[in-house]
């Protein structure tokens, strides 16, 4: 990377800028998934808005380690007594880990949707896809329009 | 979360135009999560309990459900019994006073127009409760047919009890809670029987021992001005652990009890025989054959010649079968039916479902798979109810 930097400094700066703006900042989809990326690995979950709509989650289906997924793919499902809902990939990549704790304790998704209730981690194919997602402010605005519709 | 968006849109779309029951203030006060259901603004659940916990609470203690959205009707006139029999499969003639049955309005093809409860009161009327979602077809149907009967010189009138409250109290602690507050002797009020009495001092309450949960319970038809009062007093009861429950728990509980939801599990294209509801076709009526679609229905019954059958399905793990999912024979990959209702059972911790399958696959113990698209899940045909019922019947 340092070699590249020296060779093409402008690209390097842009790259760093992207890294800094995306690292650690939660990004959202309009289908109520979130992703946080650190060092090229994204952690994916569903939002508190989604869990409130679903109610107590009693079953979760997660993608296996090594699964290659494309942005927008259905990567499993969450189910409450009331309804089942597919979970779509916010970004493309290869699954590196799934939250096995949820298999016995799916209620963690309700209790802690943004932290302990994460679903899976994936090695991102391209961090540029993150730019297509909503930031927190945009997502909160979007949520308001969804709530108004309801 | 695509499905979620669809569910939300379907539930909420007509909220602006939705009607409210006489208990709307109670729903709001206790944090009812309101959605539009069958044209009414109704709670799916309340803030204090999840749907799962509310279902379990009902099976252990007792819950209050607002079912005021359902249509309550009186049928009067000396020809009222013959009139209702001409449209349904019930033996109302043979009913004792103040008792009733579950029945169905049938169409000419033998399909089910709606399911309903008919109570033969000791007064000069029949008391009917029909589905809120079918008001727009049931009511004109009753009115038109009654007009025809009157044109033929018969005596029958339809009178809807507009906006009257209907409060279901369901669960094993019902009798303890209610007996302390009513002059009706609940020990003498069996399942599918009805009485008029005072409840918490409120006059003219019609208490009917029935429900939609599989538990012992009653439905109380009450003056709409006193309905909130009735609910508040029930919640204050020291004789049992009474909580409010919404449509979410109601749906899970009725499914556990193997009871049909009109529009999902039965409709204009399913006969009572296909729906495994042969018991609603009364013995005498199988002989008289004087209800719409009688010949087709009785032929199916006698020849056991139904093409599809409503069955119960169970699966131990994985995703729950849900409405509309296809069922497939894993050997030849043929489609053999479809799911009409399904959810993870709060009581059993297993997935349960109601489905229609080909005759060849309807025997208890038959195994096949639910097709989720990318994944499949094995299910087995089991007897319904999934959870044993606890009705108050006297020998």
From TrEMBL, chain A:
Residues 41-123 form the Lipoyl-binding domain. It comes from the Eukaryota. Its cofactor is (R)-lipoate. One of its GO terms (cellular component) is mitochondrion. Coiled coil: none annotated. The modification N6-lipoyllysine is found at residue 82. InterPro entries: Biotin_lipoyl, GCV_H, GCV_H/Fam206, GCV_H_sub, Single_hybrid_motif. GO terms for biological process: glycine decarboxylation via glycine cleavage system; protein lipoylation. Keywords: Lipoyl, Mitochondrion, Transit peptide. It is found in: Mitochondrion. Binds 1 lipoyl cofactor covalently. PANTHER family: GLYCINE CLEAVAGE SYSTEM H PROTEIN, GLYCINE CLEAVAGE SYSTEM H PROTEIN-RELATED. The H protein shuttles the methylamine group of glycine from the P protein to the T protein. The glycine cleavage system is composed of four proteins: P, T, L and H. Belongs to the GcvH family. This is Glycine cleavage system H protein. It comes from Caenorhabditis angaria.
Automatic annotation (TrEMBL), chain B:
Pfam families: GCV_T, GCV_T_C. Keywords: Aminotransferase, Mitochondrion, Transferase, Transit peptide. One of its GO terms (molecular function) is aminomethyltransferase activity. Its EC number is 2.1.2.10. GO terms for cellular component: glycine cleavage complex; mitochondrion. The glycine cleavage system catalyzes the degradation of glycine. Substrate binds at residue 219. The keyword Signal does not apply. InterPro entries: GcvT, GcvT/YgfZ/DmdA, GcvT/YgfZ_C, GcvT_C, GCVT_N, TrmE/GcvT-like. The glycine cleavage system is composed of four proteins: P, T, L and H. It comes from Caenorhabditis angaria. It is found in: Mitochondrion. SUPFAM superfamilies: Aminomethyltransferase beta-barrel domain (SSF101790), Folate-binding domain (SSF103025). This is Aminomethyltransferase. Residues 24-283 form the GCVT N-terminal domain. It is an enzyme of class 2 (transferase). Residues 308-387 form the Aminomethyltransferase C-terminal domain. The keyword Mitochondrion applies. Belongs to the GcvT family. One of its GO terms (biological process) is glycine catabolic process. It catalyses: N(6)-[(R)-S(8)-aminomethyldihydrolipoyl]-L-lysyl-[protein] + (6S)-5,6,7,8-tetrahydrofolate = N(6)-[(R)-dihydrolipoyl]-L-lysyl-[protein] + (6R)-5,10-methylene-5,6,7,8-tetrahydrofolate + NH4(+).
């Amino acid at each position: 990377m340092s070699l590249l930097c020296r060779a093409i400094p402008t690209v390097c700066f842009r790259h760093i800028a992207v890294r800094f703006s995306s690292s650690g900042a939660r990004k959202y989809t309009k289908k109520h998934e979130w992703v946080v990326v650190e060092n090229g690995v994204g952690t994916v979950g569903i939002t508190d808005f989604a869990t409130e709509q679903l109610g107590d989650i009693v079953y979760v289906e997660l993608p296996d380690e090594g699964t290659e997924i494309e942005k927008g793919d259905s990567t499993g499902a969450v189910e409450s007594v009331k309804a089942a809902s597919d979970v779509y990939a916010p970004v493309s990549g290869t699954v590196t880990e799934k939250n096995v704790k949820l298999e016995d304790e799916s209620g963690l998704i309700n209790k802690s949707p943004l932290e302990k209730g994460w679903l899976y981690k994936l090695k991102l194919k391209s961090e540029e896809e993150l730019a297509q997602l909503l930031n927190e402010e945009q997502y909160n605005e979007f949520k308001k329009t969804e709530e108004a519709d309801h | 979360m695509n499905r979620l968006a669809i569910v939300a849109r379907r539930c909420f779309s007509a909220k602006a135009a939705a009607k409210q029951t006489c208990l709307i203030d109670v729903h709001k006060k206790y944090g009812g999560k309101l959605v539009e259901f069958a044209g009414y603004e109704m709670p799916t659940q309340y803030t204090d309990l999840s749907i799962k916990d509310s279902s379990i609470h009902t099976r252990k203690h007792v819950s209050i459900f607002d079912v005021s959205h359902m249509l309550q009707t009186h049928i009067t006139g000396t020809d009222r019994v013959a009139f209702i029999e001409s449209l349904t499969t019930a033996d109302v003639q043979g009913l004792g006073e103040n008792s009733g049955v579950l029945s169905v309005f049938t169409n000419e093809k033998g399909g089910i127009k709606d399911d309903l409860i008919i109570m033969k009161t000791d007064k000069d009327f029949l008391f009917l409760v029909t589905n809120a979602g079918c008001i727009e077809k049931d009511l004109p149907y009753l009115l038109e047919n009654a007009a025809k009967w009157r044109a033929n010189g018969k005596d029958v009138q339809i009178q809807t009890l507009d906006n009257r409250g209907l409060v279901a109290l369901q669960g094993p602690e019902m009798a303890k809670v209610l007996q302390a507050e009513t002059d009706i002797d609940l020990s003498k009020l069996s399942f599918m029987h009805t009485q008029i009495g005072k409840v918490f001092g409120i006059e003219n309450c019609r208490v009917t021992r029935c429900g939609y949960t599989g538990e012992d319970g009653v439905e109380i038809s009450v003056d709409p001005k006193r309905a909130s009062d009735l609910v508040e007093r029930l919640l204050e009861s020291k004789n049992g652990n009474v909580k409010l429950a919404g449509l979410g728990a109601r749906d899970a509980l009725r499914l556990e009890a193997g009871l049909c939801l009109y529009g999902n599990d039965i409709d204009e294209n399913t006969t009572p025989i296909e729906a495994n509801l042969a018991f609603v076709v009364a013995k005498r009526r199988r002989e008289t054959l004087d209800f719409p679609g009688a010949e087709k229905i009785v032929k199916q019954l006698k020849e056991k010649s139904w093409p599809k059958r409503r069955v119960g399905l169970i699966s131990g793990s994985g995703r729950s079968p849900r409405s509309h999912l296809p069922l497939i024979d894993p050997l030849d990959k043929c489609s053999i039916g479809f799911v009409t209702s399904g959810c993870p059972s709060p009581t059993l911790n297993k997935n349960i479902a109601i489905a229609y399958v080909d005759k060849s696959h309807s025997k208890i113990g038959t195994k096949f798979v639910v097709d989720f698209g990318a994944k499949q899940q094995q299910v087995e045909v089991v007897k319904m109810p999934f959870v044993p019922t606890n009705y108050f019947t006297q020998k």
